[in-house]
């Protein structure tokens, strides 16, 4: 029985210079404590080990670390210009009506006013209506409950992004 070759991205992540991997991980999650913990776990034998290290690092993030992570995410309905990953993740808002986009903008602003950070949701695969409904529901949460929901949403986002990274090595600058 032969060993399955590692995915090209995982091979890259295990062998690339720390500064290059740190930059690629920052694109996954802006919390430096998270990227430091993931870097410290190298080398990874399989994508599942990478995901487990990410989940563990997410569970350990402080409130300040979560703030740093959230600062790396644009508001729902306004993907980061020139960032295909951001546009892909928020695809559910791309075809939304102007009314829905306006409603999402208002909800984003009200949410940010209430909690002090962007409304964060793992938007991959969600429709604009589903994102809007989640924002409507979550704005009533306590700050403590919302912080833990945000941690869970960031964990999901990181899993999706790391899976993509493990499959394909990042391209040059």
Q: How do you describe this structure in short?
A:
The chain has helices spanning 8-15, 18-28, 32-40, 47-60, 63-71, 84-89, 91-94, 98-115, 128-138, 143-167. It is built from ten helices and no strands.
What labels describe this entry?
mainly alpha; 173 residues; 0% strand
Largest sheet: none
In terms of per-residue confidence, which ranges show pLDDT below 50 for 5 or more consecutive residues? none
User: Strand content of the residues, in percent?
Assistant: under 5%
Q: SS-based structural class?
A: mainly alpha
Written account of the structure:
This protein is mainly α. The protein is 66% helix and 0% strand. The protein is built from ten helices and no strands. The relative contact order is 0.17. The model has no long low-confidence stretch (mean pLDDT 89).
Topology at a glance:
Blueprint: H1 8-15, H2 18-28, H3 32-40, H4 47-60, H5 63-71, H6 84-89, H7 91-94, H8 98-115, H9 128-138, H10 143-167
Helix pairs in contact: 1-10, 2-3, 3-4, 4-10, 5-10, 8-9
């Amino acid at each position: 029985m032969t060993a399955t070759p590692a995915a090209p991205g995982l091979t890259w992540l295990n062998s690339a210079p720390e500064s290059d991997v740190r930059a690629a991980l920052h694109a996954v999650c802006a919390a430096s404590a998270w990227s430091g913990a993931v870097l410290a776990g190298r080398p990874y034998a399989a994508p599942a080990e990478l995901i487990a290290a990410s989940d563990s690092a997410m569970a350990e993030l402080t409130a300040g670390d979560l703030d740093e992570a959230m600062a790396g995410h644009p508001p729902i309905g306004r993907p980061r210009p020139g960032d295909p990953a951001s546009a892909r993740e928020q695809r559910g808002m791309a075809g939304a009506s102007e009314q829905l986009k306006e409603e999402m903008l208002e909800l984003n602003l009200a949410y940010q006013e209430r909690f002090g950070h962007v409304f964060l949701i793992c938007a991959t695969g969600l429709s604009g209506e589903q994102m809007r409904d989640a924002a409507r529901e979550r704005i009533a949460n306590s700050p403590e409950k919302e912080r833990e929901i945000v941690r869970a949403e960031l964990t999901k986002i990181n899993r999706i992004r790391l899976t993509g990274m493990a499959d394909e090595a990042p391209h040059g600058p």
